[in-house]
Amino acid sequence: MIKSMTGFGKAEFETNNKKFVLELKTLNSKQVDINARIPAIYREKEIEIRKELADKLVRGKIDLVIYVENHGEESNSKINEAVLKSYYEQLQRINGDLGLPADNTIIQAILRLPDAVKTEYETLDEEEWKVIMEHLRKAMEDIDDFRITEGKALEADITANTKSIRDLLHQITPFEKQRIETVKSRLSENLNKLNLNGNVDENRFEQELVFYLDKMDMNEEKVRLENHCNYFLKTLDNAESSGKKLNFISQEMGREINTLGSKAYESNIQHTVVQMKDHLERIKEQLLNVL
Question: Which domain holds residue 110?
C-alpha cells in the first residue's frame, strides 16, 4: 500500500470564548518541510507542534495555519488611567498658561501619546492547549485518510505501467533471432565493402562474430529488469508506504532499459524500448507524489 503526499485537513471548534479554525495542508517534497503560522501566544509550543507533525506525516511540504477569533467581551488593550490622568493634568496646566481653550481634542491627543494604552498579554492556558492538540491530531488523521485514498489511485496507475514494462520485455524475445541475423548481415556487408578479394578467414570471422554477439547479449539485462519489476510490485504491496525505496528501484529499472536500448540494433526492439521508457517516465512522475 502506498500513500500520496497530498492531503488536506481542517478543524473548527470553540473553547474559552474563542473560535478556532485549524487548517493543515500537505504537498510533495523530498524531505519534511513544515511551515507553521500560529498566534504568538502558542509560539512556545511550536517545537511540540513540529515534532508531532513530523512524526505523523513523515514527509512532504506541510502548511499549518491556526486562526483565533475572540468572542469574549474583554479586550487585551486597556487604557492606562494613571498615565492618562497625568497627561491630562499637564496639558490642562499648559493650556492655562498659554490661554488656550480646553476641549475634547485633548483626550484624542492624549490617547496617541506613549503608554496611554497598554496591552495585557495572555498567558497560555494548558487546558486550552490540550483541546487544540486534540483537534490537530484529528486533522492529521483526516490528512492520513486523504493520503490513503489518493495513494490507491497512484498505486493502480503505477502498477499498470510496471506490468506494461514487464509485458513489453517479453515481446523482445521473438525479435532477438532476427536481430542476430541483422547484425551478422551488416558485418558481412561492411567486410565486402573493404574489397578484401576473398582474403577473409571465415573461421576467424565466425569467432569474432560470436565474441561480438556475446557482448550484445540481452539476456542478463532482461533477467535483471524482470526482477526489478517484480521487486517493485512487491514493494508496492508492503504495509508501509516507501516512496524513496520505489524511486531507487525505478532508477535501476531505467538503467536496464537504457542498456537494452543501446544493444537493440533492431527496429522492433528499439520501438519496444521506447515504449518501456514512456511507461517508466509515467511511473517516475507518479512517484514524485508518493510518501
Answer: 77-119
